[in-house]
């Protein structure tokens, strides 16, 4: 039995959480879910988007499946997602995007894995007014230590998974200190991995290359903001945000979530595609050594994607979150 913290999250979170826990149970995963609240729900209920007992549970069990959490734009509270990644030192945000069977998209051989630095960059929340409402500034932090950790994790992943190329994405031509340091660390760490081909690309060129010829990319490593943007782009290459899972991994804790957010535009309508969150849960099962169950569920997903009458509208289906969930269970 595995003890795992479960945070259903906001918006479509509860619907896709129901779906994923149902499928995992049906597949025979022995998990003791420890449910806790965070985000908008927690803010409304207890006045704190990240309640102490939620954080304590995460620190104690060190393993979590987390639904999307809404972060209000402008005033309100700071991102709980960013706080959790920082608090638990989950420095690798790993976001695979792979062409799926029976899904229509412009490309048919995308198979890339993005490593997004998850603890610093422009996401540290050091923003301030120089002059209220007319002049703002924001600070980005890049350290050798955090850069080494994420870049080494990406190289190590490439080596362990029989991948051959690592592309480091930066903007070192303009951001000479921050991105310059990240790139320099990349060249240093690359010396430890002579078996992996190393290249670097400036982020604007990368954006163009990804939409023109995404098949050329294998493992990618980049800073926090670029990784955030390019991983949504990568999802778009293979059929949308409903299809890409993600893992946040540190040296002693891991938290699994989808790339997408709380999708308020479709929340509560039985329309959300649970595949992305389900793929995150499969990354979690693999992380805890339940590879056989993960493989069974993956095969059931592939089979289900062939029947558009049970799939959700975002991937051209005429079904719902519930019909998809039932079909995956039937296909196990
Ligand atoms: P979003 O990712 O929630 O939605 C973008 C678009 O993709 C929407 O049209 C949505 O309907 C669609 N979409 C997303 N997931 C889907 C799914 N599973 N099935 C079908 N369609 C799906 O991005 P948005 O609207 O910019 O952000 C909404 C909220 O989510 C914001 O408060 C944001 O801060 C938060 N967010 C949270 C994340 C997290 O918890 N890790 C990540 C990204 C955003
Ligand atoms: Mg994002």
Automatic annotation (TrEMBL):
Keyword annotations of the record: Oxidoreductase
Pfam family, one: Iso_dh
Keyword Transferase appears in the UniProt entry: no
GO biological-process terms attached to the record: isocitrate metabolic process; tricarboxylic acid cycle
Classification via Gene3D superfamilies: Isopropylmalate Dehydrogenase (3.40.718.10)
Domain Isopropylmalate dehydrogenase-like: 3-328
SMART domains named among the record's database cross-references: Iso_dh
GO molecular function, one term: isocitrate dehydrogenase (NAD+) activity
Xref: PANTHER family: DECARBOXYLATING DEHYDROGENASES-ISOCITRATE, ISOPROPYLMALATE, TARTRATE, ISOCITRATE DEHYDROGENASE [NAD] SUBUNIT ALPHA, MITOCHONDRIAL
Recorded family membership: Belongs to the isocitrate and isopropylmalate dehydrogenases family.
Protein known as: Isocitrate/isopropylmalate dehydrogenase family protein
Taxonomic source organism: Halalkalibaculum roseum
């Amino acid at each position: 039995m595995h003890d795992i913290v479960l945070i259903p999250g906001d918006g479509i979170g509860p619907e896709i959480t129901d779906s994923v826990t149902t499928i995992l149970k049906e597949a025979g995963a022995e998990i003791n879910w420890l449910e806790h609240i965070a985000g908008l729900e927690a803010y409304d209920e207890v006045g704190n988007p990240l309640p102490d007992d939620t954080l304590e549970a995460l620190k104690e069990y060190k393993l979590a499946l987390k639904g999307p959490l809404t972060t209000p734009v402008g005033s309100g509270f700071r991102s709980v997602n960013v706080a959790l990644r920082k608090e638990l030192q989950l420095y690798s945000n790993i976001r695979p995007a792979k062409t799926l069977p029976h899904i229509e998209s412009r490309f048919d051989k995308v198979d890339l894995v993005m490593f997004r630095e998850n603890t610093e960059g422009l996401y540290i929340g050091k923003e301030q007014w120089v002059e209220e409402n007319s002049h703002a500034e924001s600070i980005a932090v890049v350290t050798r230590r955090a850069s080494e950790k994420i870049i080494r994790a990406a190289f190590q992943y490439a080596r362990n998974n029989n991948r051959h190329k690592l592309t480091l994405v930066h903007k070192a031509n303009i951001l000479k200190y921050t991105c310059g340091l990240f790139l320099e660390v990349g060249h240093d760490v690359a010396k430890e991995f002579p078996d992996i081909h190393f290249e670097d690309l400036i982020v604007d060129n990368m954006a163009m290359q990804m939409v023109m010829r995404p098949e050329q990319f294998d493992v990618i490593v980049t800073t926090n903001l670029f990784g955030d943007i390019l991983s949504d782009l990568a999802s778009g290459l293979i059929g949308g945000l409903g299809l890409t899972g993600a893992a946040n991994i540190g040296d002693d804790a891991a938290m699994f979530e989808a790339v997408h957010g709380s999708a308020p535009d479709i929340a509560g309508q039985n329309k959300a595609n649970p595949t992305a969150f389900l793929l995150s849960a499969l990354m979690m099962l693999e992380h805890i050594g339940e590879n056989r169950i993960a493989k069974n569920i993956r095969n059931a997903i592939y089979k289900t994607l062939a029947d558009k009458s049970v799939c959700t509208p975002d991937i051209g289906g005429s079904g719902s979150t519930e019909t998809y969930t039932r079909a995956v269970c039937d296909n196990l």
